[in-house]
Amino acid sequence: MREKIDEMELLDEVIAQVRRELLKTENPDHLCFLYGTLGNLYRLKNEPQQAIKCLEKALTLADADSSREIVMLIRLGEAYKYKHEHQKALEQFDLAILKGFEYEPQYLDFAYQHKGKCLMELGLYQEAMEAFQNAHAVRKGKKDERLLKSTEKAIEFLERLT
Hints:
By secondary structure, the chain is mainly alpha-helical. The protein contains eight helices and no strands. The longest helix is centred in the C-terminal third of the chain and has 18 residues, at 125-142. The relative contact order is 0.09.
């Protein structure tokens, strides 16, 4: 349940383009977006340490109590997961969930979904199922079929494991 990239050369080109854009701006919002994008790209390239550095920088630039902060927490959690630092990943997902309840529920389902995947990798199937079910409940409210199907596939996969 991890993303994989087939066209590494294209990914390298996009990374180089984002790095060039970083040199052109001083706007904190744009810098946050670019570092977040770069972190996500490095994670996809399977360079989690580089991803973590970029995402931590993006997190420092994100406005507190904003949806962007929550997105960066989720992305940082994923980078830790790719680095096999699952406890650190879970801390980020839990913080994103907490902040989602406190002020911005828009990405709550994503935080639950990624937490579920992390727990599943750890073999904590009951906890993973709870996270997926929470994601599913939120996504039902959103009425987004694509997201619902994604969570349903994760639940079905987990049920086959147990």
